[in-house]
Write a sequence for this structure.
């Protein structure tokens, strides 16, 4: 036997969860009007968690589910931006942009968070995309233009500073190279210190000595080492060969 649904024969549990989440969202909206950003964020987070994983819905319920998730994430991005929770703000904005890449409000909230993180190029990219969004009001577009001008000016100032620093670095490197070259071409004089007197001793190239010009004796006065031989007639005759 099938037990009757506790929600009644014509009730829809998914729709009831969506309705409860919508009421919680409205409570968060009231808190944002009074500037209670942290309390409002808690209400939005509860509503988001209650319906995030709903599935098995009909097409019309699925669309309502997507629309409510988008509203909750946009409101969360606003609260996180006011609380300077940049990472969470980017996360909530990204959830919206996954389904609606040209959503101006999500792009603007993410640009604010990226600026807060110091990612000025990312913020500039998001702000330029905001200007192409058709969902932005004239007042919102004016705010985008003001922020874009400030971010662009900051980027230009930073780029000019980096160029000056690079130019100074290259100039110092060039001067250092020139100084080293001049030092290497200077003649080197070897100087040592006497161990006994402590007087510096400078070594210089040896001088060329003139050749010796001592007078040599005449050749006739040089004693002869050869022994005098007897006259040929006094020698005995040779012996015959047998």
């Amino acid at each position: 036997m099938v037990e009757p649904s506790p929600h009644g024969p014509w009730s829809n549990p998914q729709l009831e969860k969506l309705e409860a989440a919508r009421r919680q969202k409205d409570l968060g909206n009231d808190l944002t009007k009074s500037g209670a950003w942290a309390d409002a964020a808690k209400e939005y987070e509860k509503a988001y968690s209650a319906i995030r994983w709903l599935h098995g819905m009909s097409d019309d319920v699925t669309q309502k589910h997507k629309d409510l998730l988008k509203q909750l994430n946009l409101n969360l991005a606003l609260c996180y931006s006011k609380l300077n929770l940049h990472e969470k703000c980017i996360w909530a904005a990204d959830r919206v942009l996954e389904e609606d890449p040209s959503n101006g409000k999500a792009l603007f909230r993410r640009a604010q968070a990226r600026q807060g993180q110091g990612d000025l190029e990312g913020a500039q990219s998001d702000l330029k995309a905001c200007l192409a969004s058709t969902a932005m009001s004239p007042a919102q577009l004016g705010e985008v233009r003001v922020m874009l001008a400030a971010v662009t000016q900051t980027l230009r100032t930073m780029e000019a500073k980096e160029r000056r620093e690079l130019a100074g670095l290259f100039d110092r490197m060039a001067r250092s190279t020139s100084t080293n070259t001049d030092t290497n071409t200077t003649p080197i004089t070897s100087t040592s210190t006497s161990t006994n007197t402590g007087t510096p001793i400078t070594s210089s190239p040896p001088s060329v000595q003139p050749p010796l010009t001592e007078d040599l004796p005449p050749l006739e006065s040089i004693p002869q080492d050869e022994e005098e031989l007897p006259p040929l007639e006094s020698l005995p005759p040779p012996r015959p060969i047998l």
Confidence is low (pLDDT under 50) at residues 1-10.
